[in-house]
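Throughout this chapter, every protein is written as a compact record of paired, labelled lines. An example of such a record is reproduced below:
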Amino acid sequence: MADGVVFRHTVEAFISRVILRRGLLSLEFDRELKALGLDVSRPVEVSVSTWIAVLRACAKRLNPTGTEAEGLEQVGREMLRGYLDGLVGKSLFLLLRMVGTRRALLRMMESYRTADNVTTIKATERGPQCVDLEFNSAFGIPSYVCGVLLEAMPMVGARDPRVEFRLEPSGATVFTATWS
């Protein structure tokens, strides 16, 4: 996983949809991000380890009094909210809403394939309103993925979305998504 990269367009989107949109970029935070390996003024693809450090730093900024897990979930939600502000995001979620929650979740691999070069997802239907998503790795920040999923599910028609996760001995993380 350490050799993996998060693609430049994902980094650019994160900068505009979370860091700038939420007004997080102070001179101090800009310096902190540069020290972590992210130059906000010149985004490039970054290593997975840099990406994780940036997500954690943003989680602290968004939720300074909460736990890291709460902050990371909020960062995941913010990333998806920002994605929906763009034309591509609006169009994609309009289409996904038409196919429904189950089919949207079962196609999760296609959505993630464009973000980085290491994430693989195996989707398994467990029932009419339950899907397991096995990520080869959640990079030690599963609450970020929970935030993305919890924000996305209502956008594709889910009511009362719930996401729980478990770590597998193989290093994989399985997210069980349920809804009514």
User: Anything to note?
Assistant: The CA atoms of residues 30 and 40 lie 7 Å apart. The first strand starts at residue 5 and ends at 6. The two ends are 35 Å apart (CA to CA). Strands lie at 5-6, 46-47, 121-127, 130-135, 162-167, 173-178.
